[in-house]
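chain below, 533 aa
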Amino acid sequence: MSVYEIKNWSGGISSFSDRGIVGSFKMGRNLDIRKDVDSLTAGQALLEEGLLSDIYSPSSSISPSASLSPSSSASPSVSFSNSSSASLSPSASASKSASNSASPSASASPSGSISASPSASAGMNNLFQDLILFFVKCSDGNTYGFGNQGYIYRRLSDAFWKIVYKDPNGKIKGAVEKPSNGGKTYLQWATNNHLMRKEISGNQNWTDVTIINSNLTGADWHTMVQVGGANMICNGSWLAMVGYDDSYTNEALNLVPGNISKTIIERGGRSIIGTFKAGYPTKGINAMIDAEYPLSQVGDDGDIIFANMSDTMPAKKFPKGGSINPNGVTNEVDQAEFFEWEQGALSWIDKQTVGNLSLWGVFGADSTYNGVYSYGRKNKDQPFTMNLEYNLEVDEIGAVTNIDGTTIMSYRNGSLYGVKAVDPDNKAVAEYESLEFKAPIKKPVNITIWNTVELFMKALPSGSSVELWYRFNKTGSFVRAYTAEGSTSFSTANGKKAVFRIVEEGEIYEEKIILRPIGNLSPEIYRSRTYFT
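prediction:
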């Protein structure tokens, strides 16, 4: 009897269906492949942030809502209240409403404030009113989110969110933190034509928001980056700039005719600009990142291309296509630690950013292939691999960032918006799909019969389970295998060997292993052996 054995699991998603580096697989979801032990385990789950039930102080001016139309269904209300101090502060309440409409419910508000925005839609359970397209990690210790309908959110270090402002000019198309030679630091952001700023920390009620200028070129994106104290801004076929001295021009750089700027990063004190050809917005550079290698994501078919200004070779591809937004990529660790300076120079010459594992928020791929992918490695002894770290099936992922070791991502699913964060206390259900294994050549009259699969594992945590599925000859869906006792999964507490029966004929074999954790404890598989004749 012959044996097909899998005992390496850390090779990531292969570029081929039947071969790859040691430990690679055809597809994986929510797997932890970069730990110190080479075993098959589940990665962390995602949790929802900004839940209305968690908001303890949603407004600087307290405005409780006592609904006059109670019903059995709860519909939380999120609204802005313009108080006599002219502040624009959100007011969230968990009042009940008999109506599923977007109009505010009748309520008695002791503060006497006027509700200027519609209630949250039925079923909404968080405060997010639009899709956050840009996260800005700010020097005041907070993270700010800038939305596609003009909302600006603040995330405190304890992960509580609050709406702090709504730009009357609508969709925010770029945002950054920028220092000034006057000693102040600002949040700056752009809508279609307007460039705005807010001093950090400034007025807590955001009445100090001012317009820098309103002559930006109308464009889909005004992605920004700080370069040597200046704010460089994508501006159609130009770059605009707010200097370190707060000077402004909307024509700092004219690009090659026919090219539209979409994304921009800083590298060694220089601006690296990603563009697309006018008329072909889905064929250009969507986003860039400097990780262990400079990388960019191109088009809507999932291509990752080297962005080191020399190589033109594609580096990798997301398994089933998809694309990302300009702020939809980040490093798991991203901080400037090394600076080079020459005595007498006005500024540093070069710097090195510590950050090696890139994270990509992919949407628009085939079903079950969307989410946050990692590409890279955590140390030099590991292979350079791709992995779907967090499977997230939504219509769009707006932005991705890492805050003090916690990865967060914004999303849109239909008309609902939200932010998810990696949950340190719970594992996700994980899937592993092996490479295609072709049975050895034999006499034409002989057929290949696959008999049993043995999974050897660490003592199984009580309440967790392991499932085995299989497929032959690259045809149809995976088929469930049953244990020797006839169960659909192996769930014996402290069990170390699971045996699944197949007894079917086939020449090309694939197996899928599903890990179902309990809390923060995952099944851990060391080896899979499939016996065939």
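The mean pLDDT is 86. The chain has three domains: 2-42+431-532, 52-125, 132-427.
thats it, cya
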